[in-house]
Amino acid sequence: MTMKVPRGTSSGRVFRLPGQGMPKLKDGGRGNLYAKVRVTIPEQMSDRERELLEQIKKLREGRAG
After folding, report:
1. pLDDT tens digits, residue range 27-56?
2. How far apart are alpha carbons 11 and 36 in whole angstroms?
3. Whether pLDDT at 65 is above 60
4. What is the model's pLDDT at position 27?
5. Domain assignment present for 54
6. Do 34 and 15 touch, CB atoms closer than 8 A?
7. Is residue 47 part of a domain?
8. Which of 13, 17, 18, 26 is the most exposed place for a label (fewest CB within 10 A)?
9. Which residues span the domain enclosing 18?
10. Residue whose C-alpha is closest to residue 39's, from 3, 5, 65, 64
């Protein structure tokens, strides 16, 4: 299963996906599936990746002011 996660979603947010969970025993339908977002940050980055992140940081700081 795949789902689109909205831009800006924080780690820990829970999405409810109706009808995508476990089968119900009595009526044959399906329950809800709950998906919790877990954002992981890379422990190691290349010099190029660090450089790009610094550029993003500078762009964001320029927007805030």
Report:
1. 889 999 999 999 998 899 999 999 999 999
2. 8
3. no
4. 86
5. yes
6. yes
7. yes
8. 26
9. 14-64
10. 5
φ and ψ at residue 13, rounded to 5 degrees: -65, 145
Number of domains in the chain: 1
Above pLDDT 70, what percent of the chain? Answer: 97
DSSP assignments along 40-60, one per residue: ---S---HHHHHHHHHHHHHH
3 domain-assigned: no
Proportion of the chain in helix, strand, coil states, percent, rounded to 5: 30, 15, 55
**Distance of alpha carbon 65 from alpha carbon 58, whole angstroms:** 11
Distance of CA 54 to the CA centre of its chain: 22
SS3 14: strand
The token pair at 59 is 């762009």
Tokens 């940050």 sit at which residue?
41
Query: pTM of the full predicted structure?
Result: 0.64
